[in-house]
Amino acid sequence: MTDAQKLTDEVLRASAATPDPRLRELLAALIRHLHSFAAETGLTHQEWLAGLEFLTAVGRKCDDQRQEFVLLSDVLGLSAQVDHVNAAPGATEPTVLGPFYRPGAPHRPPGAHIGRPEDGATALIRGRVARTGGQPIAGATLDVWQCSANGLYDTQDPDQPPFNLRGVFTTGADGGYQFRTVRPVSYPIPVDGPVGALLRASGRHHWRASHVHAIVAAAGYEPVTTHIFDAANEYLRSDAVFGVRDSLIREFRPVGPGDPDDVSFMVDADFVLAGS
Ligand SMILES: [Fe+2]
Questions:
Q1: CA of 231 to the centre of ligand 1 (A)
Q2: Is the pTM of this model over 0.85?
Q3: 168 pairs with which residues across the strands?
């Protein structure tokens, strides 16, 4: 056994008495993988320190509006991997929460517009929330949010009122819901922090496939955090945070001119929840 392996065993033994069994399991796996990472790469002191300084910078970039650690997890595909691990069979596929979720969005009546005319062309999104067996779920909530035509969320843009392009909708007795929003646009993930530097060092672009976010929840069911992606978007195959799932791509169908409600696009999007 090498000195490196002996050290790994010694550290594993030191945490073996962790009372919480799940924490014990997570710590042991983390220790094994961290030690393997150092051994496999021949990690130098300089590189080790650079890594710690990078994580420190990620932490310093965080505040109550900006979550650089979520962004880091997203661009490394860890968020998407956790989604895969936790996907419920038969239910709507989950995808990344992203750094722009804001709890406390206003509850809005069916069909309400969550944005303003200047946020983009109006899209009516409608569908049904059902359980995996197919029965509709009445009283399910859809917490939806997205960016404006300038690619910015309200939390990034002082010209948008608070909770612009955010809202919570509740399904009716038939599990149906509908709301108005705007056709989403691609936007760059924030690259003015250490995660942006990492992307530049990797030669990667920083664009997200255009999407509407949704957290769909109902009492007695596993909530799902997911997206509606626009089938016509150019970044579906190279989303910066690996969030696209084929099952979440929807057509934004143009509506002919003269629609009495000034709707430009119609989108059908059903959601399926698994029992908890
Ligand atoms: Fe987003």
A1: 16
A2: yes
A3: 107, 143
